[in-house]
Amino acid sequence: MRTSVLIVNPSSTRVTEERLAAVEAALPRTVTTIRTLAPGDATRLAQELDGTVEAIYVFSGDGTFNEVLNGVTGRTPLGFLPGGGTSVLPRALGLPRDPARAAARLTTARSRRIALGRVNGRRFGFSAGLGLDAELVRAVDRLGRRADGRRPGDLAFGRAAVGLLARRRFRLEPTIELEGVGRAAFVFAANCMPYTYAGPIGLRFAPSAAFEGGLDVFAPERLGPGSVPLLAWWSLGRGTRHVRAHDTDRLVLRCDTPTALQVDGEDLGDVDEAVLEAERDAVTVLI
């Protein structure tokens, strides 16, 4: 019987054969490696393995981490090894950025129960966005993969963000109704802190969000040319007045027009409505 399994996405930005060999050497010898071949493979594998192995390790980027989270019931401990360009989830859990060091730590790790978020039934490990950042994810996806098959890095995201705001003349008006709360130009929902990373810098749009709690929702009512520079200030956790919900279990968002939605950096298309829900005590992770 396989005691544990390592799911690997060979297309993730920082996954190489050399790094994979180092990760495998750091993990117990009884771990079996399985490579994904196409989107959705990790969810299917997680569903098949859940409850039949001692642990599921995942060496990939945040998109594959998300697939695994959507394939498990919470019975099997999960170990996330950073193989993506950003790898927000393992970094937010406090793991080393080097995948081999992270793997070595997980072999003697303690376990932790954490909460997840859901939007329209889809789980997310650290964040979901409606509007601005979802459009940014989509814009970077349109750039395609590099020659080595990897996604563009943080610099490409920065250029795309400036271009996106410039096309809007650095102005975003309220187009989303937060049920019982008010209106907003865009919505960031987080179940941990930071919301994401820009290189080594953690972006703290929801500085009080925690894996043990519900969802925090950062949602400025509008954005104008004068307030655009404040985005950087808010990203450092200085925009708490724009946190419209803290430790909440459910919030319904209704859009004036179809609006882009993302979870954990993955584009889910346009929606007219998004139902945010907290799933407390959802899964066990190794840290």
Can you walk through the features of this model?
- The chain is α+β, with helices and mostly antiparallel strands.
- It is 26% helix and 34% strand.
- The chain is built from 8 helices and 16 strands.
- Helix 1 (17-26) packs parallel to helix 5 (99-106), helix 2 (41-49) crosses helix 3 and helix 6 (132-142) crosses helix 7.
- It is globular.
- The model has no long low-confidence stretch (mean pLDDT 94).
Number of domains: 2
What portion of residues belong to β-strands? 25-35%
Strands, total number: 16
- Write down the CATH topology of the largest domain: Tumour Suppressor Smad4
Low-confidence stretches: none
Q: Strand pairing plus helix content: what structural class?
A: alpha+beta
Which whole number gives the mean pLDDT? 94
Give the biggest beta sheet. 10 strands, antiparallel
Q: Any guess at the CATH architecture of the largest domain?
A: Sandwich
Question: What does the radius of gyration come to?
Answer: 19 Å
Give the ordered list of helices and strands.
EHEHEHEHHEEEHHEEEEEEHEEE
Q: Percent of residues in helical segments? A: 25-40%
Continuous helix count:
8
Oligomerization: single chain
